[in-house]
Write a structure and sequence with these properties.
Rossmann fold, 6-stranded mixed sheet, 4-stranded antiparallel sheet, 9 helices, 34% helix, 24% strand
């Protein structure tokens, strides 16, 4: 898989809310290795786009294509083996750090060197080996023994263990304080290198280096470009950035 993604005139409504259109003719392209950010007000279709890419749902109209093939025609388990998702609330289970990272593996015989490599990439290796029990440390129910930033970096290591071609980030730093966000964002930036990455972001400061930013409004894309281009344009994106800066200053 190279990792070219295309949404072609995608329309979608959730089966539980058929009267409410979520995507209305969505067109977007992500080239192999690109870092693309999806931004916009909540409820505008960003996370739905990720859910369609993971094939949790199929479009009502239009198609989602990867490397020119419509994903609804692909073997779903094989297709998903090329993807990894890091979401806002990482799911950790009672068990050791090693057990939790190995949940990302698609085979049973993962050598320690690969686990360690994924942890270095995720900025969490030094923390793990500083613990008395290292990788054997029990994380507690839902990872209760760890901070939000530590849990998120373990989730990133788990995602990287699959060596995904496509990395999906769904508001991966929005639940963190600013210090944790900084460390986790550095790990995400490293993880994205050489991979097709699609990031849904609420905090716009985290996606300013994206190759392309797509701005959603009511299920459609109203603007696209780099951060600099969109700020110069003075449209919807610039408005969202200015609103967030005002919120911070107050």
């Amino acid at each position: 898989m190279e990792g070219t993604i295309e949404f072609r005139d995608v329309h979608f409504r959730y089966p539980t809310r058929p009267e409410q259109p979520v995507l209305r003719g969505l067109n977007l392209t992500v080239k192999p290795g690109q870092y693309v950010a999806l931004v916009g007000a909540s409820g505008c279709g960003k996370s739905t786009t990720i859910a369609l890419l993971e094939r949790f749902y199929d479009p009502l109209v239009g198609g989602v294509f990867v490397d020119g093939k419509e994903i609804s025609t692909l073997n779903i388990a094989n297709y998903r083996s090329y993807l990894a998702l890091v979401s806002q609330e990482p799911t950790l289970y009672q068990g050791s750090i090693r057990d939790n990272i190995l949940l990302g593996a698609d085979r049973d015989d993962v050598p320690d060197s690969e686990i360690e490599h994924a942890c270095r990439e995720a900025n969490i290796y030094d923390f793990i080996i500083s613990l008395p029990d290292g990788f054997g440390t029990v994380v507690g129910s839902k990872g209760s023994m760890l901070s939000g930033g530590q849990k998120q970096r373990i989730a990133i290591a788990r995602a990287l263990l699959r060596d995904p071609k496509i990395l999906l980030l769904d508001e991966a730093t929005s639940a963190l304080d600013s210090e944790s966000e900084h460390v986790v964002q550095a790990a995400l930036d490293a993880a994205a290198k050489g991979r097709t990455t699609v990031a849904v972001a609420h905090r716009l400061s985290t996606i300013q280096k994206a190759d392309v930013i797509y701005v959603f409004d009511q299920g459609r894309i109203v603007e696209s470009g780099t951060h600099t281009e969109l700020m110069k344009r003075g449209g919807r994106y610039a408005e969202l950035v200015n609103l967030q800066q005002l919120g911070r200053n107050n």
